[in-house]
Structures are given as structure tokens and as C-alpha cells.
Amino acid sequence: MLLVLFGMSYFNTQHHKLILCFLILGIFITVLFFPLKGADAKVADGSVIYQDLTDGIVALCIYHVKNGQTIVRIFSGTELKTHPSIHMEGYISGVVLLSTSSIEASVAGRPLRKVPIQTDGSLDLTKYGKFESDVLKVAFRNAEHSDFDFDRMSHFAGKYAWFPTVPGDPVSTQNRFSIILKDSRQSLEIPVFHTETIQLTLVFSEPDNIQYKMDFRYSGNDPEQFEIRDFETRVRAIAEGVRAVESILGQELVTSVNLLEYDGIYNALTCDGRNEIWFYTDIFWKESPEELRTIAEHETLHIFVDQGRLTKNTDLRELFADLRGMDDLSMDRFALITTGVFPSGARRTDSKTPDHILFAFINEMNFFKGKKGGHSRDSLEEFCVSFLHTLMYPDNLDHNLKSPVILPGGDLHILSTNNQMSLLADYLMVIEKLMNAAGANPAGKIMEAFLRDRLEKTRPLNNGVASK
Known about the structure:
With 468 residues, this protein is α+β, with helices and mostly antiparallel strands. It contains 16 helices and 21 strands. Mean pLDDT is 83; it is low at 1-11, 34-48 and 348-355.
């Protein structure tokens, strides 16, 4: 202030006053944008921009998988000051970040998303369950932040998380990636090291000596299991299942198969928009190679249905609603036709009436004797996948029409002649609807030809059923 008063008395000309104005403006800008070391700043929303980013970090929660088990390691802001890098055993499958100020954060180049608070006060991590305050209470017992009310997640201005779409998938296949924290003035890069994904490129030979490659990727801590001789038999069965679908449909669908050492899930699955299949190691080792091939075919067909956008086809949606026996004016039907999916709960209603026998008939557990699985009634996508799967093996159709069908509740249903005729008529109708959907897709010419071939092979069965 004395400097300003002195300046006003000294700079008594217009020219000097103009210089003084610029001087004062420069001091103002310097204080505003370049505060003294150690000073924090407040922004318009009331949150604080810290001189050191870690001062605003309450908890960086690292979800890592070791020997199939998920372990949560929590780093406080103070720990991050003394940990220039993070080293974890096993592989990292997700991150939760809590802060007292709003910041930007990313893990392996993917931005963390804001997580809303649920009515019970927890954070909903969707497929990864809930993040509850008790986790923080245990981590920070008698430690820093003891003055925080951990029962109120709203205490934290920043609540962020990032997890893969596929449960248990690693955030990065490399052994090193970065977590980056940023605000309007600075950024902090935290190098992270974990167990990298093992990648195998296996070469297989078909009976006609044609060779093909397939990439397998393993995330886990037990690569020695690959030395078991049975391992090659199992991956070969999966590769044959993938190849069988690709050969019939005339296109490459699967770029890699992922094996996840992640306990608690007994399944294989695909993900919309991705050309990969994920097998959890429990199902990989416990099912027979023959079952693994059937599963691989089913999952590869999921990728095909996704790429062909079959579930977007209005005619197929209407057909599926009809087969499910939905009333013309029902809300379930409206939701299915407009969005392609059921409202919550509708898919879990199982009917055992003969009107719905097609769903049970095309499930893998019925159409492929000795096999498991199939839930074609759950959704249009599952219906298309299981139906296309049956078309890969047309020779099974005649025999299966004469065999009992296992219904959802486990009861056996003997197909009468009328049942067989109705079932075959529905089967042919679905083929025609799929042909129309394929014809509307510029890339569906091979599929259309495949369906036409199956239609011609199926039609003669009408005569055999009708003559009984």
C-alpha cells in the first residue's frame, strides 16, 4: 500500500499514471495466478486448488488381483508424497479416488468417472459392488484424516473410479502404466508397476493342413499351469470353436482370447464393441474340452450378432416379442420394440407352456446332447446367438424334433406331432426373418447365403412331420 501511495505522488503525469496502472495490474495478475509457495487457492465452486496435489487426496484405492483374490490397497495423500511410484503384487483391476477438491484423474490413459452417492451413503461400483465408508475407517484408524466424517461420503468433493467393463480384466496389459492427477495449475504422474499380461500366439493346423493363428492372453500369478499338457488340448478346443464359426460366416471375428485368474466367476463372455472372448480360469479348467469348444462357438456368435446389429432390427424385435407371448399393448413389449431390452425383472419370468417351447428347444443343453447352457429366452441377443448356433449343425434338427425337451424348470416335455409342426413352422419363420435382416446389411451377403442354404435343408422336414 505504501508503494502505491508513493507511486501516486511520484507519477504525477498522465504518462506516468498509465505506467503505474500497468504496474498494479501486473502485481494483481502475479498474485492471482502465481501465488507464493505454500499458498492454496479457492475457485468459484468453493473447492481448493492445493499447492501440492497430494494435499487434496484423501484416498487412492488400488484394486489388485493376486492368486485370484481381489485386494484393496489404500494410499493416503501423505503416502503418495513418499511413494514416487506404486508397486503392486498381482495385476491391477480398478481404481477409486477420493479427494477434498475437484480434480481430473486418469488411469492408463482412461479418465476416471465421477461416482454418485447411493441412498445408503455408499458408492456404487456396478459390477464391482459397493465402496463403503468402513473401508476408509479401517485404513485410516488412528491415522491422518481422523477428523473426517467417513460416514458421509458427501464430505468429499471428488469421488472418482475406473474399472474395466469385464470384471477382473486388468486396467493395462503392460507391466507399467501411469495414474495422472491434474487441476487447473499442475499435474502429478504416478508410475504404477504390476504383473503384466502374458501373451501367447498359438499356431494350429486344420485337417487340410491350413494353419491359423490365435492370440491368448493370461492375467494372473500362475503361468506355470500352462505347462500342464491338458492346457494345449483346452486352448485348441477353444480355437476350433472360434474357427468353426468364422469359417461358416466367412469373416474373422475374434482377435484374442483372454484367460482371467479371477475367483468368484464361473463364466465366459464377450463385450459389445470388442472382438475378444474372456474365459475365467475356473470354467477353463473345470469344463471338458468339448464343452469349451461349444462355449467358444456361442461366444463367437455373440460377436457376430453384435457386429451385424441384429438386435437393432425391428422385425426381429417384434418376432421375439411374439414368441415371448407379449400382449400388443404391454409395457414389456413396448420396451423391447423401442429399446431392444426388457424392463428390469421381465426376463426372469419363465413360462413352461408349449407356446414357448422354441426357446428351450434351441438352448445348447437341448440341441447339443450332453452339453450345457443356453438361455435364449432371456434376451433377443441370446435368442439370435443360440438360434444361429443350431443352424451350424442342421443334422441335429430332425433327431431333436423327435426327442423330449428339457424345460426351464427341469421338466421333460414330450413333443406331440402338433408340437413338432408348430415348432418347425416357428423355426422356418425365424430363418426367414434372419435372412431379411441379413439382406438389409451390406456386409450380410455371406450370412444371407448361409441362411438360404439352411432354409432349403430344413423345409423338407415339414413333409416328414406332417406324414405322421
